[in-house]
Write a structure and sequence with these properties.
heterodimer; A: 522 residues; alpha/beta; eight-stranded mixed sheet; seven-stranded mixed sheet; 19 helices; elongated; disordered N terminus; B: 724 residues; alpha+beta; eight-stranded antiparallel sheet; eight-stranded antiparallel beta barrel; COA_CT_C (chain A)
Chain lengths: 522, 724
């Protein structure tokens, strides 16, 4: 015990366990059947009632409660309940320091009837720390999931690696990580390898090095929350994809979100029965774009009005808000939606929004989810901050992602589609399948004012020239006559058109030229 | 020949009744007369100097009469009326003073389009004698009375004198203009409290205040003169005896240019908030035939006294003993004219146009019927929970008028996607229902309100529905104090009794279960070979659910099961559920379409129309039931148990921050940082939709910081002032 100074709370934890749980292990006189029962019971209790109560007091659920909430009732099939850690150093070999199942609960179950593998780290056992046995359990279900073609959901609640054991590596096939409180080193690096990460307000922390190390290395004063809290990762760093208020809310949302996704990258995107008529006319779209082309509107108004039942699951809603990404359904089919957000920074593309968009587009492409893009982009954000930050490199990521994607791609230009940003936003030039323009669309190199200032520099009659430019380019015709948009459509018919196109594009097959892997400008 | 013409035009009018005026009331008794009038030639082109629903209303009749229409609009306001009109002219920027009140621009529009006549609607320039004069100068017909009548009746002081002379009952009061606040106090003391201070040029409740003591008189004087100045450009005020607890009943008159005047019965407009009408009906339950006749005849005397022509309204206050007093005469088409049209079968706009052209009235007084009963609810974009209605703004993201129901007429000038902004009146529509009896009209109103889908702005349907179902209203026991008397603590929404509460809980639980079943409806679930999913899914075989529903602070245990074999669940169509809630049994059947905002359910055999406003993964559901919104949270029993471990969110202390209750402009800031304010002291004044609202402190405190300045535009919920 003396050497357990890894984390103060772990030491306390061990002491409690010794006091309360030792009787479970002096049971050699019992029959095998009885011992099985005892072990099962012990596994159910994790680190014991006191630890469970402490977990509840922190406003957190236990590993098993989380699994129960996530999965359909009575669908959980547990594996490796009898696995124990194998560490023999620092007194860990004592019976009192062994817990059946160790610090993680693993198994499979169903969400709305659909198969999923799940592991849930148990903070009540050694603070959920990752031992060799713990890692082995996770790897086992991941291997199984890979063979059957089902996803893995990880519910993380861990102090990090179990220092007594040394670090064990984890090769991850993990699909979705629901990060639970106090994720320390290694897990930080692990989580970001996952497809999607959700976290909790006020209780989730994620960082490479904690505030103490930061202080000693850089002399920077920072709290856990500021350094790696949910707000930091969802609004500033873009590490996590969405934050929730608490365990219960997160798990309920996760259940609904799971329905959008295919079980594996070999499955087509799921189709749910649809009660929302696919030919529904959306009258409100006829007036959503304001008359003055400088006035903002909310792209979410368009998205909510078009998708099935107005049900849109936004990803990264608080990060790089000038681009909106998320999942929805069109006539029952899952689609990924990308839209410039005119309400924030005029919907321009900058470094963060480009990377956010690119990652989402690739997610969709990897999982056979068609992409619908709503374009109202005045261009890339100019300035030294952006150039020094490498906007060219990062903007290219979004271009690359759209170009590379072979899933059905439908694009609607609602208003501005200016310059390079027009090209980037799933244009016809990037193999867009169907590209539409609303009557309010303006496909041009730049806004009339800027264009005229360059073309007619130093000349008079700028106002007249501007009017001429507007007449010529601030409308959908220049793009339409060249076939760069397939049609100019009435906004109200947008839903109908998209649903019809998706029906046709369901059989789309497109293969990129062979390469070991694409070389996206990272 | 006449007969034939009549018939053919009648059919014409019939079609329009359905497609254009969107009236589903059976006006068969009037169609013949419609036809006859339509046959007379009036104008080729009319400009409508107004916006919104009244512009649309006038355009509809013009179309019916074969008249070309010109709409005017501000540059932010090209709404339905612009689309409906044959031509449209932009007359200026958003503020009404620069567009709809901009006479120069409107005169230009008339010249530009060659309109022969102008219909002014109500408000704006409708009672502006200068406008009428300018029109007359260029030979354009003003569809309304002549300038003399506008002037005589537009001035409250003069109109009262004329009324007295015409032997119309008038209210005791001071017949002159009040100059200063101290004058006001002196006069008020002479008349005796309570008194009413009102703008001489006013109307529509603007610039009106009631005072019960000297202090309130001073304050009322200040507010009314400011409001009068900003609304009418005329800050003259007058004071009269305030008749406590009166009814507001008005007589519609119709007069031609040949001295013929008719009274078209009364409208009961007693349900008001801040002196603005909310629910109107015709006829009034309160009037007997004799009183009605005497009031009608006095109204006619007044109209004759000022040589009135066109449609006009004589407003009376009626006390509990059926004594009535002349209040004012509105020399224009009233907002609530549709109820009169419903019971008399006349198209008032058509009559106005004919009269303006110089035609004689074709009816006699004995031709004017009271056919059935009509009720009008003014549907406003406002929050009824704040002083019975503070304006709200927003975009109508979803909007469906209840036109599928019969005997419903909706006069509106907006559509799905329209913006309700701070520049104009926040009225969404006038919802009119009609029936053979009052009870029938009321029942239809209840249905119509339940079926009305409005999303994107806060609206007053909760209040309207409470009013029209309130026992006092149903029995006809109303006065202009109805709202403050019935809701002394302010409007709090529908109060659910035990049965209704159970129904709501059962509906929410049933909705939750339906959506759970629906979540399982991913194709491939039932071995759908066509789609070749690699892993097949398990079917949903659950038939019973144990749920926990949270409503307010209370948790209710609910058991729910599919009832017998009676359910059909093909394409999520029909499902019948047995719900055990708080010991009672409720059966909920429905066509569950989760994509529709309307949720028609049969609860214990009774049809109920609910609306689902939102349904989140977290179990939070917002339902509209009995007109009011209820937030519930439906969780499985297990989830509810685990949810109890979750920490509660701490909410912000609102006593020390003052937020704007509505969007508007800050016109005055009475405090600065460091000041100490008393409980109830005015902190600032916000003007919205031309109404000045004084915001006060809710506790004694020191002002910590001020976040806005006079002149600044603020949104609802914006932080204005922080207290310590």
């Amino acid at each position: 015990l003396a050497v357990l100074h890894v984390h103060q709370s772990f030491a306390c934890l061990l002491q409690t366990n010794i006091q309360s749980d030792c009787r479970w292990y002096s049971v050699s006189h019992l029959s095998v059947k009885e011992r099985i029962e005892k072990k099962r019971k012990a596994a159910q209790m994790g680190g014991g009632q006191k630890r469970i109560d402490a977990q509840h007091q922190r406003g957190k659920l236990t590993a098993r409660e989380r699994v129960e909430l996530l999965l359909d009732p009575e669908s959980f099939v547990e594996t490796d309940m009898f696995v124990e850690h194998r560490c023999s150093d620092f007194g860990m070999e004592q019976d009192a320091n062994k817990f059946p199942g160790d610090s993680v609960v693993t198994g499979r179950g169903r969400i709305n009837g659909r198969l999923v593998y799940v592991f849930s780290q148990d903070f009540t056992v050694f603070g959920g720390s990752l031992s060799g046995a713990h890692a082995q359990k996770i790897c086992k279900i991941m291997d199984q999931a890979l063979t059957v073609g089902a996803p893995v959901i990880g519910l993380n609640d861990s102090g990090g690696a179990r220092i007594q054991e040394g670090v064990e590596s984890l090769a991850g096939y993990a699909d979705i990580f629901l990060v639970h409180p106090s994720d320390l080193p290694h897990h930080g690096s692990l989580c970001i390898l996952t497809h999607l990460m959700l976290c909790l307000q006020d209780t989730s922390y994620l960082f490479i090095t904690g505030p103490d190390v930061v202080k000693s290395v850089t002399n920077e004063d920072v709290t856990q929350e500021e350094l790696g809290g949910a707000k930091t990762h969802t609004a500033v760093s873009g590490v996590a994809h969405r934050a929730f208020e608490n365990d219960v809310e997160a798990l309920l949302y996760l259940r609904d979100f799971f329905n959008f996704l295919p079980l594996s990258n070999q499955d087509p995107a799921p189709i749910r029965e649809c009660q929302d008529p696919s030919d529904r006319l959306v009258k409100s779209l006829d007036t959503v774009v304001p008359f003055e082309s400088t006035k903002a509107y909310d792209m979410l108004d368009i998205i909510h009005a078009i998708v099935d039942e107005g049900d849109f699951f936004e990803i990264m809603p608080t990060y790089a808000k000038n681009i909106v990404v998320g999942f929805a359904r069109m006539n029952g089919r899952t689609v990924g939606i990308v839209g410039n957000q005119p309400k924030v920074a005029s919907g321009c593309l900058d470094i963060n929004s480009s990377v956010k968009g690119a990652r989402f587009v690739r997610f969709c492409d990897a999982f056979n989810i068609p992409i619908i893009t709503f374009v109202d982009v005045p261009g890339f954000l100019p300035g030294t901050a952006q150039e020094y930050g490498g906007i060219i490199r990062h903007g290219a990521k979004l271009l690359f992602a759209f170009a590379e994607a072979t899933v059905p791609k439908i694009t609607i230009i609602t208003r501005k589609a200016y310059g390079g940003a027009y090209d980037v936003m799933s244009s016809k030039h990037l193999r867009g399948d169907m590209n539409y323009a609303w009557p309010t669309a303006e496909v041009a190199v730049m806004g009339a004012k800027g264009a005229v200032q360059i073309i007619f520099r130093g000349k008079e009659n700028q106002a007249e020239a501007e009017a001429e430019y507007v007449e010529k380019f601030a409308n959908p015709f220049p793009a339409a006559v060249r076939g760069f948009v397939d049609d100019i459509i009435e906004p109200a018919t947008t839903r109908k058109r998209i649903c019809r196109d998706l029906e046709v594009l369901a059989s789309k097959k497109q293969v990129n030229p062979w390469k070991k892997h694409a070389n996206i400008p990272l | 020949w006449t007969f034939l013409t009549g018939v053919s035009v009648t059919m014409h009018a019939c079609t329009h009744t359905h497609t254009l005026t969107r009236t589903h009331a059976p006006h068969t008794h009037t169609h013949c007369s419609y036809g006859l009038f339509s046959s007379s030639q009036t104008f080729d082109k009319i400009l409508i100097a107004n916006r919104g629903e009244i512009a649309c209303r006038v355009i509809k009749t013009c179309k019916k009469m074969g008249i070309q229409t010109v709409a005017v609009h501000s540059d932010v306001d090209s709404n339905v009326h612009v689309k409906m009109a044959d031509e449209a002219v932009c007359v200026g920027p958003a503020p009404t003073s620069k567009s709809y009140l901009n006479m120069d621009a409107i005169m230009d529009a008339i010249r530009l389009t060659g309109a022969q006549a102008v219909h002014p609607g109500y408000g704006f320039l409708s009672e502006n004698k200068d406008f009428a004069k300018r029109l007359a100068a260029v030979g354009v017909t003003f569809i309304g009375p002549d300038t003399h009548a506008i002037q005589a009746m537009g001035d409250k002081i003069e109109s009262k004198l004329i009324a007295k002379a015409a032997k119309v009952n008038t209210i005791p009061g001071f017949d002159g203009v009040v100059k200063t606040a101290e004058d006001a106090v002196k006069i008020a003391q002479q008349i005796g409290y309570p008194v009413m201070i009102k703008a001489s040029a006013g109307g529509g409740g603007k610039g009106m205040r009631i005072a019960w003591n000297d202090e309130e008189t001073r304050e009322g004087f200040r507010f009314s003169s400011q409001e009068a100045a900003s609304s009418f450009g005329d800050d003259r005020l007058l004071i009269e005896k305030y008749i406590d607890n009166p009814r507001h009943i008005e007589i519609q008159v119709l007069a031609d240019k040949h001295g013929n005047v008719l009274w078209l019965n009364e409208r009961e407009c007693s349900i008001q908030r801040r002196n603005q009408k909310v629910v109107e009906e015709a006829p009034s339950m309160f009037l007997d035939a004799d009183t009605r006749r005497v009031m009608g005849e006095q109204a006619v005397q007044l109209a004759k006294a000022v040589k009135y022509s066109s449609a006009g309204t004589v407003e009376f206050l009626v006390d509990s003993k059926k004594n009535f007093y002349f209040l004012e005469m509105n020399t224009r088409l009233q907002v609530e004219h549709p109820v009169t049209e419903c019971i008399t079968g006349l198209d008032l706009v058509e009559q106005m146009i004919r009269i303006a052209k110089g035609y004689q009235l074709q009816q006699k007084q004995e031709d004017i019927p009271i056919n059935g009963w009509a009720i009008e609810s003014r549907v406003y974009a406002e929050d009824p929970f704040k002083s019975f209605g503070l304006p709200s703004i927003g975009r109508l993201s979803q909007y469906q008028e209840p036109l599928k129901l019969s005997h419903v007429r909706v006069d509106s000038g907006i559509e799905e996607g329209s913006d309700i902004n701070i520049y104009y009146d926040p009225m969404i529509s006038k919802l009119v229902t009609y029936g053979a009896t009052r009870a029938e009209a009321l029942a239809r109103m209840e249905d119509a309100l339940d079926n009305y889908v409005i999303r994107g702005v806060t609206h007053n349907i909760p209040l309207l529905r409470e009013i029209i179902t309130h026992p006092r209203f149903v029995s006809g026991d109303i006065s202009t104090n109805f709202l403050p008397e019935v809701y002394p603590e302010g409007f709090k929404g529908h109060h659910l009794d035990e049965d209704r509460c159970r129904e709501l809980l059962a509906s929410a639980a049933a909705l939750h279960v339906t959506s759970q079943l629906y979540s399982h409806k991913i194709l491939g679930t039932q071995s759908d070979l066509m789609l070749c999913y690699r892993v097949s899914s398990a079917p949903m075989d659950q038939n019973n659910w144990e749920l926990c529903v949270e409503l307010g602070q209370e948790l209710h245990d609910i058991e729910i099961s599919k009832s017998g074999n009676s359910y059909i669940f093909m394409n999520g169509l029909c499902l019948s559920l047995q719900v055990k809630v708080d010991g009672g049994q409720v059966e909920v059947c429905g066509d569950w379409n989760l994509a529709s905002p309307l949720l028609p359910l049969t609860i214990n055999g009774t049809c109920r129309m609910l609306q689902c406003l939102s349904k989140e993964s977290s179990g939070n559901i917002v339902l509209q039931y009995m007109g009011t919104l209820f937030k519930v949270r439906v969780l499985s029993k297990l989830t509810a148990k685990l949810n109890s471990y979750m920490p509660e969110k701490v909410s912000e202390d609102t006593s020390s921050i003052l937020r704007s209750p509505m969007p508007g402009t800050v016109v005055a800031m009475s405090v600065k940082p460091g000041d100490t304010v008393a409980d109830g002291q005015e902190i600032c004044v916000i003007e919205a939709m031309k109404m000045q609202n004084s915001l006060t402190a809710v506790k004694q405190a020191k002002v910590k910081s001020v976040h806005c300045q006079p002149g600044e535009t603020v949104g609802e919920g914006d932080l204005l002032v922080e207290l310590e």
